[in-house]
Design brief:
It is a single chain. The chain is an alpha/beta fold. The chain has 2 domains: 265 residues, Aldehyde Dehydrogenase, Chain A, domain 1; 179 residues, Aldehyde Dehydrogenase, Chain A, domain 2 (3-Layer(aba) Sandwich). Helices cover 39% and strands 22% of the residues. It contains 15 helices and 25 strands. Strands 15-18-19-14-13-21-22 form a 7-stranded mixed sheet, sandwiched between helices. It has a 6-stranded mixed sheet with strand order 10-9-8-11-12-24, sandwiched between helices. β6 and β7 form a beta hairpin.
């Protein structure tokens, strides 16, 4: 049983109340860690530490220090790939092969932002210059689906910008986020610049979002919670970045490479057991290709190996008993609403929280399984007659995070991508998020963008200096 305290002001500290919570291995349901549970007083201590570090230390002014810390953190991560990947899989359930890819990816991410620590300025004309300055104290609130990766998406741009940060990981997967706190201390990060506080969202998250001493909050998670974060952030009009839900349309055109599109559709929805905000949970097929595609899709899905993430399967468990029941509830909705269950649909007795990869055919756009984010391995297949109908179906959702188009005619695919109301549209691929490219959504999928210079600027204030 692992034990973790809070990481505040460069030290491990007990929660003031001494309260703790347990973390489970989703592949077995067994307890693996005991974690300190912060209350509002603990969260305020972390905010005070960050505020003092930003206001009274040289972090925001010393771009060389920030660069060196990010580079050293990347170096330390590369030395601990196996250990951190093991912890990530144990905590989250993802296949260990993916976890071992994500740790170096995170190191790459820190190195990328190490190259963006120099102050930004833009000369507009002989009189006007625009300067970008650190926001101050930033809070990052992250979900459980890709814990280490999501932590880096908040930490790297905030620290590169010169801000201090309080990171609040999910209570279901806090382990690698806590490890990152100590790794940054070993990398030379000044005390108070990076704090990691664990506990419930209703306590820790709301305190961070509502505090007048926090200047910016970056949230990744469900849309309903994002709206509450936005409401709380209005108290001091703090800057916000919200990356919320998705119900992404994966559009296959009649000239698509069938083998690639089938494999892409399986990866789009069943990667990480469908627990990805960009999951291709709505597959749009042309009438002319439908029957052949479905035959191949079902066969490919049934070939997936399920098991404990430590055995490196194609698909691991879902995160919790609650998520498992939610998936099952939506499967019942699909059946009740008249969709045709063609594959999967059951819970699996494998010792943990396992749901069969599930496919529904004959789905109508107004059904719950086609409109609501399930966040599990449940695919809705919708059929269209022509391009106009495909675009109409793709945009018939309150979300707009991502989508894809599969076609051998790239000009045609780009035309459809241009009319898809989503922040990211892939062509003949799925799930890519290059570190230099913007990531975020339209409509109720969020506000603002992460990654690249776009993400960096979300942690900076803009100042115009006019000189005559």
């Amino acid at each position: 049983m692992m034990q973790y305290k809070l990481w505040i002001n460069g030290e491990w500290v007990e929660a003031e109340s001494e309260a703790t919570f347990s973390v489970l291995n989703p592949a077995t349901g067994a307890e693996i860690a005991n974690i300190a549970s912060a209350d509002r007083a603990d969260t305020k201590s972390a905010i005070d530490a960050a505020r003092d570090a930003f206001d009274n230390k040289n972090w925001s002014q010393d771009s060389s220090m920030r660069r060196d810390v990010l580079l050293k953190a990347a170096e330390l991560l590369r030395k601990e790939v196996d250990r951190l990947a093991y912890l990530e899989t144990l905590d989250n359930g993802m296949p260990i092969g993916w976890a071992k890819r994500f740790v170096p990816d995170v190191a790459d991410f820190f190195e990328y932002y190490a190259g963006l620590t120099e102050p930004l300025a833009e000369k507009l004309d002989s009189n006007s210059t625009v300067h970008y300055e650190p926001v101050g104290v930033a809070a990052g609130i992250i979900p459980w689906n890709l814990p280490l990766k999501m932590a880096s998406w908040k930490i790297a741009p905030a620290l590169a910008a010169g801000d201090a940060m309080i990171l609040k990981p999910s209570s279901q997967t806090p382990i690698t986020a806590l490890e990152i706190g100590e790794i940054f201390a070993r990398a030379g990060c000044p005390k108070g610049i990076l704090n990691v506080v664990t506990g419930s969202g209703s306590v820790v998250g709301s305190e961070l979002a509502g505090s007048a001493n926090v200047d910016k909050v970056a949230f990744t998670g469900g849309t309903a919670t994002g709206k509450e974060v936005m409401r709380l952030a209005a108290g001091n009009l703090k800057k916000i970045t919200l990356e919320c839900g998705g119900k992404s349309a994966n559009i296959v055109l009649d000239d698509a490479d069938l083998e690639k599109a089938v494999k892409g559709a399986v990866f789009a929805i069943f990667f990480n057991a469908g627990q990805v905000c960009t999951a291709g949970s709505r597959l749009l097929l042309p009438e002319t290709l439908h029957d052949r595609f479905m035959e191949e899709l079902i066969a490919e899905t049934r070939r997936l190996r399920l098991g404990s993430g430590l055995d490196d399967p194609d698909m691991g468990p879902v995160i919790s008993a609650e998520q498992m029941e939610k998936d099952l509830e939506y499967i019942r909705y699909g059946i009740a609403d008249g969709a045709k269950l063609v594959s999967g649909g059951k819970l699996l007795d494998m010792g943990g929280f396992f749901v069969e990869p599930t496919i529904f055919d004959d789905v109508e756009s107004d059904m719950r399984i086609a409109q609501e984010e399930i966040f599990g391995p449940v695919l809705s297949v919708l059929t269209y007659s022509d391009e106009e109908e495909a675009i109409e179906i793709a945009n018939d959702t309150r979300y707009g995070l991502a989508g894809a188009v599969w076609s051998e005619d790239i000009s045609r695919a780009k035309r459809i991508a241009s009319r898809t109301r989503a922040g990211t549209v892939w062509i003949n691929t799925y799930h890519g998020a290059p570190k230099h490219a913007p990531f975020g959504g339209y409509k109720e999928s969020g506000i603002g963008r992460e990654l690249g210079v776009y993400g960096l600027k979300s942690y900076l204030e803009v100042k115009h200096v006019y000189c005559v």
